[in-house]
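notes to self, project folder thing:

trying the whole complex as one job this time. last attempt i did each chain seperately and stitching them together was a nightmare. four parts in total, labels are on each line so i dont mix them up again. if this works i'll redo the older ones the same way
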Amino acid sequence: MSEAASPAFRRAEPDVRRLSLIEACARVLARNGAAGASVRAIAQEAGASVGLVGHYFGGVDALVAATYDHIDRRVAEALDLAVAAAGPAPQDRLEAFVTASFAPPIADTALLATWIAFWSLVTARKDIARQHDEQYALYRARLEALLGDCGVPVSTRRRHAIAVTALVDGLWLELCLSPGCFTPEEARDIARGFLASITSSSR
Amino acid sequence: MSEAASPAFRRAEPDVRRLSLIEACARVLARNGAAGASVRAIAQEAGASVGLVGHYFGGVDALVAATYDHIDRRVAEALDLAVAAAGPAPQDRLEAFVTASFAPPIADTALLATWIAFWSLVTARKDIARQHDEQYALYRARLEALLGDCGVPVSTRRRHAIAVTALVDGLWLELCLSPGCFTPEEARDIARGFLASITSSSR
DNA sequence: TTGCTTGTTGAACAATCGTACAACAACGGG
DNA sequence: CCCGTTGTTGTACGATTGTTCAACAAGCAA
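result (full assembly):
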């Protein structure tokens, strides 16, 4: 009697497997913090073997960097979605872009864990520092474009983009780090007020 | 012939030894990042043995927490110094308090490393989360007092303190994380402009 | 079916981790 | 001078780390 035993494992499309490892890494990061994100913990979370991490990413640091990159893209998509849902008015679009950082899925402790793990690599590794610079520049460029649509002149656009980014980052960080200190609504109102002071003065 | 060999080690005052371990921890954190802050690396940096860390702090996490606490106090002292040097005018004192974060010794990659290492513990450990909440509340209370001196009414004081803290934290973070993206002077100007919009509207 | 490609596994490895603890020695009080 | 206190040392220990790699098997082509 020939018995077709269930396969010991499934072969996956490279991209699919990569994604499952990345998502597992994000979950472990959120659950155990940066210190607990070991190869074995991530592999177990993904239902794969330890060797696969090395096979697809070469090392743990690279996997963390890839996880940051992936989550950063997801954040960017969430921001795009918020802007698209805001309608055509430039002011509304700018406000939607900014305040989306204080609501799910962006304001999330799980995201913070990934960010912190990534930041802890920026100081030591040069290539990761460059990756951070690039993604930060990308975010600011999007913000500058939205500011431009609201009539903020080129001369002050860069400066205001830096300011808004800092304010949002600071609020988001504290919101994730110690929720209960202030509410997402308060953060949103603060950001709104700041945007109003910018766009009203450039008209 | 009785030879008085040079002592193999010196006994130190408990506080002195604690401090030397804390400062060594900060240096290692700055040099190797959060991942490289092992008991052995810290002990070697302090010129002490591995056992002393356990003797004085009980564990590495507690040492990192103590390091954060110590550096946080040093930052508070630096802020006090900046305020004291600013003179009597409330506006000047507030501005000095805020803009001091963008200059040495506060704007420093070494400080950032300590902060990140500490943040990475906040998610996982409850007692460290409470320590963070307390120190954040302390900072904000100082800021609220300075805002009050500038005539900001009680009703909006809390909200503005949260906003200023977030802006400063965001600027400080990015300044340390990728220096060269914008200058300390730009950060200072941005913070100044924000403070002006707060204090001028409450008069 | 047969054979090849290659995604996948998991054991093995050296290195490093944090903690515990018995032995040692510096220092002050007798 | 000696003796007790205690700060200090460093080894030993088991657990865990990241990485490597030979063996295996899933899936596809012929």
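what i see at first glance: The CA atoms of residues 4 and 134 of chain A lie 51 Å apart.
need to look closer tmrw
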